[in-house]
Amino acid sequence: MYLTKQINSVKICYDECGMADRPALVLLTGWAHDLRLYDELLPYLSRKYWVIRVCWRGHGQKRDDIDDFGVEEQISDTISLLESLEVDKFYLVSHSHGGWPALGIADKLGRVRVPCLLMIDQIMTQPPPEFAVGLQAMQEKKTWKAARQGLYDNWMAGSDNKAVETHFIYSFGGFGHKCGHFLVESSLRPMKNMAHPCAVWK
Question: Which residue ranges does the record assign to the AB hydrolase-1 domain (predicted)?
Answer without folding.
Answer: 25-139
